[in-house]
Amino acid sequence: MPRDTLRSHDACITSDHLRLPRRALLQAGALGMFGMGLADLSRLEAEASPGAKSVGGRAKSVVFIFQSGGPSQHETFDPKPDAPEMVRGDYGVTRTRTPGEWFCEYLPRLAARSDRFSIVRTMHHIAGREFRNEHSSCMYLLHTGTTSLPPGDTNASIGLPRPGRMSWPSIGSMISYAVPPDRSLGLPAVVELPRASGMGYPGREPGPLGAAYDRLGVDIAPPCHSKDPAGSCPNCFSHDDPNDPERAPGPGPKAWWDNSSCRKPDFHRPDFGLADGLSIDSLTLRTGLKERMDGLRRNLGTLAEAGRMDSWDEHRRQAMNFVMASRPGHADPFDLSRESARTIELYGREEWGQGFLVARRLVEAGVRMVQVNLRGWDTHQNAFRDLKGKLLPSIDRCLSGFLDDLESRGLLDETLVVMCGEMGRTPKISPISPNGKNASGETFTPGRHHWGDVFPCFFAGAGIEPGRIIGRTDREGGQPVTEAYTPEDLAATIFHCLGIGPDREFHDAEGRPYRIYRGQPITPLLA
Q1: Under a CB-based contact definition with an 8 Å cutoff, are residues 173 and 206 in contact?
Q2: Using CA atoms, how far apart are residues 495 and 501, in angstroms rounded to an integer?
Q3: Considering the domain boundaries, does residue 287 fall inside one?
Q4: Domain count, the chain
């Protein structure tokens, strides 16, 4: 059997996972840890990782910024000002600091900083067209760093549990396996924010690596009540928002929906299951804990009988770490009250900026990978209204502030920053349905649609040569005309910058080896 092929019995099966409320799971984990002996604790720490070492990569951490929905290459980093209007779009261009290169006119701050990062314009998917133009499929391909779906899967099935699936680990899980952080950190290797529970996309699971290498998803943004929410609160919106000013979101009597409770960008600390009377102080006391622990264990029923205690041990260990990392007197990376007003203004007082700020704090704390999800890039309709008014100003300010802060603190030299969506957008502009109406009852306005044949990717920081534009697309921005790169190559580039060598392997529960690398690093990017 080839090293990089997973057989069906290697799959992650839903019945193997605990069906418990998150709070109960974390409480049981925290309490159970105090019921263990030091030898048990040592065993858990010893088994948490293979103790792999870096082979000299410059990056200590990676921040992966995921533009969920697929941003348009034309309205970001690959404009086509000389193309026909139906391809060119409504926007002009702005000159960058990279000689002879232009970005979309609504990215002026990033254009002024183009000497600090590089763009690969010719990322693409090589899967069948039925896969490379659909969200779920492309999200799986991007996040696992692969070029094909598991055998038997479709775009419709890949996001659903399926017994017997041959599942490849996510890029984050392989990073967690190959270059685990210091065990004293108290947080997992990979953290996803700011609305992890609302991001049900496939491809971020650990697959055969198991629960020890899963990511921690946290919800730290306030609830957003936008219809089909997109963008960065308080600059959030819906692509279905009416163009009729009298029906604009707000408290008015003719408003399509009331957004008056949806304008708070301030983050909160994640709930690690400390509600219902279980305080951090109580966790430091042994008195009375055993009785509570035993009660919770009784509720777990047949876990041991089902042979799933290994996974339960890992959840218990991580739960304790989450709680203790946030106890008073420790540098809680989620607590933005410690940041100055000047720093917060640099990032922007909005959801995306604060997400980047938490990412910086997690990197400083030693987390190996932080994924920041940016929603709303699926611009089928009202594309030019929403990109100009919402999406582009937010990313231009927040990402520029993030780069400035990393550089001023000396963190950009040891942090790899990568940003892209799961696909690009069609070269030609058209309404998604010529005669149809959107959810607010207005006729669909033009936008661009799914396009996996080419999309741009942003790279900055450790291991990256800045100021480069790599790859060229055709006159319409729809096809690569120079060398193109796949998600396998993207993953290999990240691994290379982190010092994970091309011969590294991981092993499944039965000891079978698989190569971590499936592609080649994008060498024109590398310093």
Answers
A1: yes
A2: 7
A3: no
A4: 1
